[in-house]
Design brief:
43% of the residues lie in helices and 19% in strands. It is an alpha+beta fold and 403 residues long. It has a six-stranded antiparallel sheet. Strands 2-3-4 form a three-stranded antiparallel sheet, with helices on one face. A two-stranded antiparallel ribbon has the order 1-5.
């Protein structure tokens, strides 16, 4: 009995007489898709590697806001660029023998515009083994590197807790939720590729984000510089739970978590100097660490909730959260090691911002062009710039264009 597994493919031609079926899977966050060819042969190892490295590194940046290494942020960006190249090269260099047409006579398990991919039990086992082993090895290597290159720079301690719930107006907690969601979504798509049962891939993939983040939290617990944070742990669970709940209820991510950023110019010499010190100077560092410049969104696809409407399938409405006026984790003051205050801007109000804005779900825009699909996948992880209605400091404000 063959286990059947459905994806919507598009066809590409990579040489004379070598027509290949190319399956395009939706991934999270940096937001390339895991490319897979119709075969028991696995050619997505580079994709798997860069996915974990990229998402894991991004998660650490949110976790350590002001303590991040500039190298780590740069690596995350470089890995994303490398991912694009690897995926493109994989398409053009995969051998023709990976095309398997021997199962084309089997019936699909659900209707679709294109024929389904049907996997044999042997292929399923092979893919499960590959995903499990490769992820385990890659994640282990990453933890070893993290332990030696990051935690080794700080004194160790016995396991302890650290309450950072009051820091950064909880922007770092929203970052944890977002990171866990993205990691879970990416992992779930990899498990989908294996052809395992629907509920298994939802739970295996869905819990991955919380699991990976929890390992890092444990390492924090043994570091004198930080500690186990129940707030971080809780938002990690919420992030993974957001993905699992939607998949179980709708078999779809109708509400996608997204991110937006704009480079801030503080227009004050003292504030610019302070921002350079705690957020970094490069655009990559600011992208990761400047919570004043970040907004996190929950973007709901309207057509998914109103399928009989004439709304465009890509139209969404997003609710966002951000904060301003933060130049320290808990207050806008800083001290030298001897206790002398060297920065005091308590005159600047720290406040929350709430937004509502139209959005575009690029994953719902159909195209057969490979490059455009890659671009749309990347864009689907970010809030599309659009006008927004802001509520902050007790009043409403209209922003002509919100990044």
């Amino acid at each position: 009995m063959r286990q059947q597994f459905v994806h919507q493919p598009f066809l590409i031609t990579t040489g004379p007489g070598k027509r290949r079926r190319f399956y395009y899977k939706e991934l999270a966050g940096c937001w390339l898709r895991a490319f897979d060819f119709h075969s028991s042969s696995v050619v997505s190892l580079p994709c798997t590697t860069y996915h974990w490295a990229s998402f894991f590194t991004a998660s650490l940046k949110h976790h350590r806001c002001t303590g991040c290494s500039s190298i780590a942020g740069t690596v995350a960006t470089c890995v994303l660029v490398l991912a694009c190249a690897v995926s493109t090269v994989a398409q053009d260099t995969a051998v023709a023998s990976i095309c398997d047409t021997s199962v084309s006579h089997l019936s699909p398990i659900r209707a679709g515009d294109m024929p389904p991919l049907t996997l044999t039990p042997k292929q399923v086992r092979s893919r499960v083994r590959f995903v499990a082993i490769s992820n385990g090895l890659e994640y282990s290597a990453l933890l070893i590197a993290l332990n030696s290159e990051w935690y080794a720079d700080y004194p160790r301690s016995s396991f302890h807790f650290f309450n950072d719930n009051a820091e950064w107006l909880q922007m770092d907690k929203v970052g944890h939720l977002y990171s866990a969601y993205i990691e879970s979504r990416m992992s779930m798509e990899l498990w989908r590729w294996t052809g395992i049962d629907r509920k298994k891939r939802i739970w295996y993939g869905g819990l991955s984000g919380a699991f990976y983040q929890t390992i890092v939290e444990i390492l924090d617990g043994f570091s004198a510089q930080w500690g186990w944070s129940w707030g971080d742990f809780g938002t990690n669970i919420l992030g993974s739970g957001a993905l699992i709940a939607q998949e179980l209820a709708w078999d779809d991510q109708r509400i996608k978590l997204k991110f937006s950023f704009h480079k801030k110019n503080y227009k004050d010499g003292q504030l610019d100097a302070r921002a350079n010190k705690i957020f970094g100077k490069s655009i990559t560092e600011r992208f990761i660490k400047d919570y004043n410049a970040q907004t996190y969104w929950a973007s709901a696809n309207l057509r998914a909730f109103f399928p009989k409407s004439n709304l465009p399938p890509w139209l969404s409405v997003a609710v966002g959260y951000g904060s301003e006026g933060m130049f320290g984790a808990r207050s806008n003051t800083a001290k030298e090691e001897n206790g002398v205050i060297n920065f005091d801007r308590r005159d600047i109000q720290r406040y929350r911002q709430w937004y509502i804005s139209p959005d575009i779900d690029f994953s719902k825009i159909k195209t057969k062009k490979k490059g455009v699909k890659i671009l749309f996948t990347v864009l689907s992880g970010f809030k599309f710039p659009a006008p927004s209605l802001e509520f902050s400091k007790g009043k409403f404000k209209l922003n002509a264009l919100h990044f």
